[in-house]
Amino acid sequence: MKKGTLLLFFQFFSIYLFSQAGFIENIRMKVDTLTYDLQGNTITYSGEPHLFFQYNDDEEVAEVFLYYDPGNRPDIEILFSNDYSIVDSLIYLQGLARFKVRFNSLTESQFLKFSFYVTLDSVVALEEFNLLPVYNSQVDVYAASNELFIGEEKIIELVTNNPGNLILDTRWTENESINYRFSERGGSAVIHLLPNIAGLHQLDASIHLKKPYLDDEGNLQFQIPVDTEFLVKQGRLAFLAFDQQEVTPREDKREPVSIQIENHRLLQIGKTYRIENQEEIGGPLIAELFTKSRLTNNRVLCELRVYAFHRKSEGYLYLKDGDLARFITNLDITPKTEIASIFIEREGRDWQKSNIVYPGERINVRLEGKGMHKAQISFQGAKDLEIDSLVRNERLSLFEIHIPENISVRNIEIYNFNEQTGKSLAVREYQKPREFDFITLDLDGEKYEVSELNRPIYYEKSLADLLIDFDRDMIDRDGEMYGVQLLDIQFKIFNKAGNLIEIYKLSEFGVCPSGDSPRAHYYDNSNCNPEDININNYVNKKTYNLEEWSKIEIDISHSRQRYNAAGFHKKINIYLKRDYNFDIDVSFPAGLLILKFGSGGDFDNFSKGISFAMMAQFSFYQEGKIAKYKPFKVGAGFIAIDALNYSESSGNRDVGLVVIGSVYPISSNRKLTFPLYSGFGYLLSEQKAFFLVGPGIRVRF
Description:
The strands form eleven sheets. This protein has a seven-stranded mixed β-sheet, with no helix packed on it. It folds into six domains: 3-134, Immunoglobulin-like, CATH 2.60.40; 139-233, Immunoglobulin-like, CATH 2.60.40; 238-333; 338-427, Sandwich (Immunoglobulin-like); 436-576, Immunoglobulin-like, CATH 2.60.40; 580-699, no CATH class. The radius of gyration is 48 Å and the shape is elongated. Mean pLDDT is 85; it is low at 1-21. It is an all-beta fold. The protein has two helices and 54 strands.
């Protein structure tokens, strides 16, 4: 079997497998006026079948048809992709489904494909179809003249229908009749030509493409030729090339730079040539060239004394004997690399003039100064160094560096060709405010995470100890480091009446990350407190001696002196809640109606005087209110009936054991109140049980 026939067979076989892979039997895509489908427009690329289509617009709109077995209609779901957006959603027709897409930046897109979830009879399959956009790129060279001169660089604009599809190689070719390179100027592609040999020469150049085109034989082509013919002539002045294309002058301009230049029969040895930037007389002195001796490699050893800077882009240099130009040359004379400023860019932030970095972060570093294009910069101690070659010129260079989390040096020295530049990045430890999820309140074993507290704590038992615990393992973890946390913590204690009885403040209380932190050995531990806080160790009024409904106010915030307004703040109120209160109460019931057993069931005994009662009674607090009593009390004790009645006619004077309930006015702020009493008891003198009801007087101090 012939080679071509065998290749055709394998290509047909791969297309068959590609089209028969699942429920979707074929894809037809309509782009502009052309139609493409799997049977007729599939090509093997990178070892996989691809449906190719030609586009003319980066945001081309395509109508897509999916064909399937009409007897078994599947459910088709289009998966999301950043490479295109759905213009018209999926519509089912007889034996096919149709939708419309708009592609996004086809020239820049990579690994383009359609992906579908296809469901049929509870069977779900992922079906993907690779797409290959092709662009009919065209590049032409239109020169005003096809003449070139040896030693003279000529720049010609390239005419192309899609400059964005060109990958321009900015490096010069070597050892060719006409050396060339490509670059971009003002949004257009240009070619630089530098002839070396006189005569008629064919320029055979090529440009790499981002998106290929199909040649006449249907093959993918990722390079497009740039062919034209030039007539190379001898220059009016002999061009002498230096062995170095760039020279850095000495700090002492009187000290020469050793350099080699091409030999020429008219070049005199032991002579000093004046180098100017113009052929006419009176040009500024750029440098002086002293020819020392001829070498065996057809070059001349020279000493170059530099007096001014020069760039090739500014024009040619002329070697003059006096005021008469003898030769032409060119090279860059640029200043020594010198870093003047350092700028840092962090994710989501603008550039900032600073040299401060932090362990574990990935940052962009911009170095500004002189001669940055020829520097070979390295950062001692940093890793994953990446150079952005698109942003690098004489004035600045851009780098992306990763500071290791366990970096041990305090200064990352910046080197140029293994020599110190005198500049460095200062490594600082993190001191970022962390949310209070690492702080826990411990109320006799009941724990509360401070960051989640958004309401008061009502504690119903005696509070033996109130602790503030710190989980130091949480401060630096999961690749996020916050460093030493400096906290201002204030305790306030209020009594039941709401009066402040004690205040205590801890300023800049330091909490350091645990020893598991990669920076644990580098933190300044002088201000760190390894122990948690027991409030009873700081206040005189201990928590276990506080009366009911006392309030403990804890105010935690990051120190404003260290964090300004960037820190967190939390105020926590703890109430020692009680449902009731037990106390001894003295009151003066008056005008009591007393019903004694055996008196016939009438309240015929009326206390005309003021009685005296001493009761052990319970008071009950209102639910949902702080230290507010319910308007009634229940108690038991002694009552001296008519104790303050000194008239001789008093016949009810007696002492009894009694259980009394009393009702008080709702307002609790009055000093003098008139409660209503009701209860029963036993008279000790008459030895009778009795009921009583009536008002009284209660004085509150």
